Amino acid sequence: MSRIHRNGIWKVLFFVYFLALFLIVVLKVQHPNFMYGWQRFWNGDPFTPRYSLTLFHTIKSYLHNYDYQVHQYNLWGNILPFIPLGFLLPAAFAKLRPLYVAIPLCLLLIVGLETLQLYTGLGSFDVDDIFLNGISVLLGYTAFVLFRRKPLKFQV
Prior knowledge:
This protein has about 160 residues and is mainly alpha-helical. Helix content is about 70%, strand content about 5%. It contains 7 helices and 2 strands. The chain has helices spanning about 5-25, 35-45, 55-65, 70-75, 85-90, 100-120, 125-150; strands at about 50, 125. Strands 1-2 form a two-stranded parallel sheet. α5 (about 85-90) packs across α7. The two termini are about 15 Å apart. The mean pLDDT is about 85.
């Protein structure tokens, strides 16, 4: 497979992934009440912005609350979906591969998603989410670096 073809595949994967991430994180298409939230937004109904600007406030509540299943879902839901971002961004765009470029750009995208959640009222702006998402991006970037050093070889 040619290098150009391979780069094209990575770009398509990145854009499909980012579209899915946007639909799930911002538009909440997987949420049972997703149409209700959007109807409120488009009708201009007032909403109370939800945000947390205190680092580790939400994470501490996850650890000290007895609703273990919900908090584990929220904790892992802020980690697992963002690992591919740290892998796919540098895989798709060679100019964005250096650590000092990829990580700040990923963090900027994450802050943008959090801000959209705050603005639309379909979610909340939480610095703990940004922290957990940032750890995820670092994990994904580490996987990318390891993959580049020793790519998998498939034989048919």
